[in-house]
Design a protein that fits this description.
The complex is a heterodimer. By secondary structure, chain A is an all-alpha fold. Chain A has one domain (3-115): Four Helix Bundle (Hemerythrin (Met), subunit A) (Up-down Bundle). Chain A is 77% helix and 0% strand. Chain A has seven helices and no strands. Chain A starts with a helix and ends with a helix. The relative contact order of chain A is 0.16. By secondary structure, chain B is an alpha/beta fold. Chain B has four domains: 7-138, Response regulator (Rossmann fold); 148-292, Reverse transcriptase/Diguanylate cyclase domain (Alpha-Beta Plaits, 2-Layer Sandwich); 305-555, Alpha-Beta Barrel (TIM Barrel), CATH 3.20.20.450; 566-692, PAS domain (Beta-Lactamase, 2-Layer Sandwich). Helix content of chain B is 46%, strand content 23%. Chain B has 25 helices and 25 strands. The longest helix of chain B has 28 residues, at 111-138. Chain B is elongated, with a radius of gyration of 42 Å. Classes of the chains: A mainly alpha, B alpha/beta. Chains A and B meet through helix 3 and helix 5 of A and helix 1 of B.
Chain lengths: 116, 701
Amino acid sequence: MNRQACLDAGINYDEGVARFVGNAEMYEHFLNEFLSDPTFALLDTAMGEKNMSSAFQAAHTLKGVTGNLSMDRLYQKLVALTDALRGAGDLPQAESLFPAVKTEYQHICTFLTAQK
Amino acid sequence: MSNQKPTVLIVEDQLMNRQLLRQILGAEYTVAEAANGEDAFRILGEREDISAILLDLMMPVMDGYTFLEKFRGGPHASIPVIAVTADRDPDTEQKVLNLGAWDFVSKPYQASVLLLRLKNAIIRSQFYLLSEMRHAYEHDALTGLYNRAKFFSETRVLLESNPETTFALLRFDIDHFHLLNSFWGEEEGDRFLRRAAELLRGAALGIPLCTYARISADAFCICEPFDEPAIRRQADALREALAAYNRNYLIKPSFGVYVIRSPQDSIQSMYELATLAAKECKGSFRTFLSFYAPEMSRQVEQDQEIANEMQQARDEEQFQVYLQPKYSLNTEKPYGAEALVRWLHPQKGLLPPGVFIPVFERNGFIVELDFYMWEHVCRLLRRWLDAGLDPAPISVNVSRVNMYNPNLAHLIGGLVQKYGIPPRLLNLELTESAYMDNPEAICRMVAELQAAGFVVMMDDFGSGYSSLNNLKDIPIDVLKIDLKFLSGGGSAGRRECIMASVVDMAAWLDIPVIMEGVETAQQAAFLKSIGCDYAQGYYYARPMPVEDYEKLIASAQTGPAHAQTEDHEVLSRLIWSQEPACERLFNSLPQAAAVCELENNEYRTVRVNKRYQSFFGFRDGIGRRTALTEGAAGESGRRMLAAFRAAAGTRQTQTCRIPLPFADGETRSVRMDVQYWGENKNAAVLFVLFVLFSKNDQPNE
């Protein structure tokens, strides 16, 4: 995988590798695995149903995953979304934030697919 | 600490995260994985080697918080848990720490931070474990007080830090605690011990310079500055508080105090002396506090000394057989002897049995001494037989312990066989007090011994409280009674009366009696008068070495005194039998009747029938004699005696008329018909009928 390309795609490649204790191979493997991760689909559905708690769970989980993979741009957006969904939640705010999350997600997926 | 990598349990639902963590931890740790809380508990149940747990808080099935709540009360609660939080807010962190997590790390994982926190947590937990172990090592598990070792070392420190102060050890335990424990059950017994510990702790609170502990079982000890009144008050208060625990039971502590005058001694030896002092209070309800005194140690030392020397004494034959002859009261000659042990100690000289027998009974050596004595007496008898003599029997003592030896008959039987001694020459003296423990077993033993041909004597008859009851069941051949049981206290008449009755009773049962401890001529004379067969005691001869005994025997003619007639057995059966026919006959006689014995110009009443009681009006036992004995004074007595003697001498029925006192205070003329029935040893047995005199009768002057 091209390091620079990742950086351009909003993936902090160096940090990611470092997190995986220098095991670039494992890191890249999991980057690829991200494509089959079902969490975003759950988030999408929950937002569509205006189900705040399910959306929160999914957003929180996705936040964790993207954080571990150092997908910085997507991660930051998910942080904001998760906060908006937390507790009682602010649905309008969440709904306003979600499109950006979705766009970023699709970007990442496109990028990763191309890398294969 | 092993060289193996410690194992960390990861509790995380996301596969990627698990793999990531495995990657991060893999170099330093072995990793176990659980996808949720339930899974984690299962693994904890299966493995013993988890050093730490990394716990994700957000999980399906059982989330991290729930896991923590369940975890902390459980058996694994000492394993450090590091919570992995995605949210870095203080509330979460606080909540997590409150639930018992040792630390937290945040997502996304930062390998270096994670590894550091993990390592710290593991090290901290090991310190904690060590200190727990140390606590267990130094403290008593049940009560939490110091244990024995810790107490000794802490007391040593206390003494050394306060050289100007005189300290004392107060040590107490509960009398018969093992019994209380079995009444209450172990759980309640433990509860009591915890209470005792609490009381001790309370007592120690007010004393700045002290150490205290539970030493063992029910033994507690406190070391405090020596202040006698204070210590007595303290013991009193403790005693009262302990008794109050359960007043349905007798909870009695024994307190021993040892005052520390030479602090350089080992604490253990001081504790042992305090224990020795406490022993003085055992068995006494009133004494519960005792101060150690050197005499207590001396007794223990003496016992130990004797124990140290006993084997050698036996091997070197320092134990000597002394013989105390028994005398026949009829022939006034010696007949047989009792073998008694003396210890001819090379340094200490001749030691009497009182010094060492109790020690041997305590430590069990008595069994060996018994056998030693039996064998030596057998050798003696063998020597006499070989010299062509006709020795009288020698009796040997059988200790309580040996009386319960199922092999006893076999053992002694083997011995006499080995030396070719007729068993009747080795009489066996069994002490009465041993019968009380298990009369049935003793009965069987005595029967076995008799079957083997031995004469069995009951020693110290009358010393136990069930003598009469035992006598009817146990087939004893000879009774030995010690005069000292009959001496002291009570009126003189009563004592003599009892002795006479016992000798009489023994006579009817056909059991010879040997009286021991005869020391004066007066005693000897009295014994003879009541029909006692044999006597043993300083008045006749002291226990003497074998050579002296042999000289004594050579210069005297000996012979048994016990003689009987066959009449006697028949009579005995008739008079004393509980056969309904005989009873009814005697008691249904329309006349007052009595059975009397005449011996050497004196008579006594042995038995009277019911009619006799109502005839004279006397109801009680004493009255039984009164009618005849009162009348024995003066002229009446002389004539009664004459009639008795005539009846005994001629064996013909004699009749006489004599005024006798009645219960209503009147004196009336009574006709007595005296019949001779037979002999009982040296006495003539007479049967007497009484009738109120009427003018029609011819008086026989």
